[in-house]
Amino acid sequence: MLKQIKTILKTAVLIAKTSPWNLPAFIGSRFLEIVQPFVTLFFSAKILDLLTQGADRPQVVQWIIAGSAVTALIHLTGRFFVNLNSVEGMDLFVKLYEEMSAAMMRADYSELENGKMREKYERIVRAANVYWYGPWEVPGVLMNVTEGLTVVISSFALAYPVFVPAEGKDWWQTVLLIALIVGSATYSFFAERKLYQLKEQGLEGQIHDNQVLNYLDQYITADKAAKDVRLYQQQNSIRRFRDTFNQKMRQGVGESRRRKEASNSAIREMFGRLISFAGYLIVGIRAAQGYFSIGDVLLYAGALSRVSEGARMLVYSMQHVAMQAPHCQEFLDFVQIGKKTQKKSEEVSNVKTKTKTKTRTTTSGSAEASVARSTPHEIRFEHVSFSYPGSTKPAVKDINIVIKNGEHLAIVGKNGSGKSTFVKLLCRMYEPQKGHIYLDGKEIRSYSKEEYWKILGVVFQDFALIGLPLAENIAASEEYDENKVRHCLKDTGLEEWVDQLKNGLNEWMSASEGTVPSGGEKQRLALARAQYRDPFLMVLDEPTAALDPVAESKVFQKCREIAGGTSAVYISHRLSACRFTDRILVFDEGSIVQEGSHDELAKQRGSMYAQLWQAQAQYYI
Ligand code: ADP
User: Fold this and answer.
1) What's the pTM value of the predicted model, to 2 decimals?
2) Are the CB atoms for 569 and 540 separated by under 8 Å?
3) If residue 527 lies in a helix (H) or strand (E), which one and from where to where?
4) More confident residue, 162 or 464
5) CA separation (Å) from 4 to 301, 326, 489, 572?
6) Cα separation of 161 and 286, whole Å?
7) Which of 52, 83, 334, 366 has the least CB density, counted as fewest CB within 10 Å?
8) Burial letters for 535-547: b for 16+ Cβ neighbours within 10 Å, e otherwise?
9) How far apart are CA 350 and CA 410, in angstroms?
10) Mind giving me the DSSP string for 560-571?
11) Per residue in 282-334, pLDDT tens?
12) What is the arrangement of strands in the sheet containing 591-596, beginning at the earlier edge strand?
């Protein structure tokens, strides 16, 4: 239990950091709401006693004024907290989701590719939306604990004389009351636990079903699938499929949970009534025996009727802590993803900035700035092998190559021969399990990933534009050098296209608010984005697969022009586009089986390259 309390407190700290007013607003509003009836009860009993005891009028009036003033103050403060809470609640909702998106973006590529991150995300969101589990509920948990404690303490404090046997006799009254309260609390404890177990079982089953439904949602809303859905009349099949899953989700554990919930509340109600009844009975007997005044009867009976509710709340709040803690822990683990690596790279870059500042004071600025640019760079793969997690078959094996400064390389091979895996290793999406990759003689692992990525300009086949202004897409940043953006767009042949956009560089790249570029324009934009970062190495991973051969050859030609003295690695299925590179590497089953210029390789009869070339050439002759 201690561990679970700790988790809830850690989550509360995170909430306090992300949305500082949330917890005070939430707990404050509920606390005052709970306290109010006790305060009213206290003043009413006092005034009733003063009246029945024939107290002075001014004294009674004083109590009436004091009671009204305190109640009004509590009410007004309560309203203030309620208003604050409605704003802060929304703020927290959004900010916690933001924390998860940030973690998604920090996560290792491999975690995203194998779907684990998505699964974790799905679990958290599903638990939150269907069962109300997770950090969003922590203000509620803390409030329940506060509420339970407040009600129990206030009702005991007000009604404690009922628990003390009058003149040491009639112990049965005390025993009866305590037995009923303990019985009610014990029942609540076990009943809530059972309910929790049923909810957890339901959640496990639903994670998978929900992923399937989400996939279907994405499918039917994707413009690519719209044609398939219509042409193949998939509507009915999809609807049937969805119905089956929806029904499955509604049935099963959900039903037994609802039955359990109904019986729980009936038994809880019964305990509540019994405690109130016993309370009235005992208070009535003592009043008849002359121990309690009329005011006491009102106060004690009122307070006792809330004891069972308070005890149940306290037990429930403890159960709530136990139930919520694992889900909060899942969330805390999720939002921690990638933080360590980020911190490390920030430390590295801080050190570098400091060193740079120091050097600048001792050496001339221009000499330092040109060092990186003027030094010829070189990337070397040495005996590099890699298998995907869970697979025993290597996707690439024993790769040994050097990409020299300014060299243009093409990588070709059949599907599944390891080309994309080679690019992923080159781009540090994965680390090799065997062998090493060096940049300028230093293992690439000794650079922070962010530092290493700065030297790369990569264009993938499925290049995605974000719904942001054009220039921000090119610069991949909110701040950009306008001249440089224009220069890159000119180099990639997009100058005229930009000129005819209504808002020029500020045109939003989205269908709803701006322009959606064509496939060819998108590829050129991707090239411009790669060029903007002045990379040492351009990597083009099948960037032209969606283009016709003429457009493709233009993009490749453009790339050659832009790359100029920069090194480049091209991957394309169309060998004709690769033939003009300095060197071609032929991949087969994860290994490099041939290496050389197009003319050299095409001459090697019966070789893999010659086969690929022949197979494609016949379509172009
Ligand atoms: P290519 O780009 O030449 O088509 P890949 O590098 O994509 O080839 O694939 C090389 C091998 O690795 C293939 O056997 C492929 O099935 C496997 N592979 C590729 N991606 C993954 C992945 N994410 N998880 C597991 N295996 C993969």
Assistant:
1) 0.67
2) yes
3) helix 519-532
4) 162
5) 36, 8, 56, 54
6) 10
7) 366
8) bbbbbbbbbbebb
9) 37
10) HHHHTTSEEEEE
11) 888 989 988 888 888 888 888 888 877 788 788 888 888 988 999 999 999 99
12) 456-460, 537-541, 567-571, 408-413, 583-588, 591-596
User: Which residues, 6+ apart, have CB-to-CB distance to 443 below 8 Å?
Assistant: 436, 437
* SS3 (DSSP) at 541: strand
Q: Report helix, strand or coil for 411.
A: strand
Q: How many helices (H) and strands (E) does the chain have?
A: 23, 10
Element of type H or E holding 447: none
Centre of ligand 1 from the C-alpha of residue 422, in Å: 10
Q: Is the pLDDT of residue 55 over 80?
A: yes
**302: which 2 tokens?**
């009122």
Distance CA(466)–CA(474), nearest Å, equals 10
Tokens 């038994």 -> residue: 267
Question: Among residues of the chain, what percentage have pLDDT more than 70?
Answer: 88
Q: In angstroms, what is the span from residue 111 Cα to ligand 1's centroid?
A: 16
Instruction: Kindly list the protein residues whose Cβ atom lies closer than 6 A to any atom of ligand 1.
Output: 113, 388, 391, 395, 413, 415-421
Q: Which atom from ligand 1 is nearest to the alpha carbon of 590? A: 10
Name the token pair of 528: 């411009």
Burial of 357 (0-12, 13-18, 19+ CB in 10 A): exposed
Q: Could you identify the residue written with the tokens 């922070």?
A: 448
pLDDT at 438 over 90: yes
Q: How far is the CA of 572 from the CAs of 147, 251, 325, in angstroms?
A: 65, 50, 50
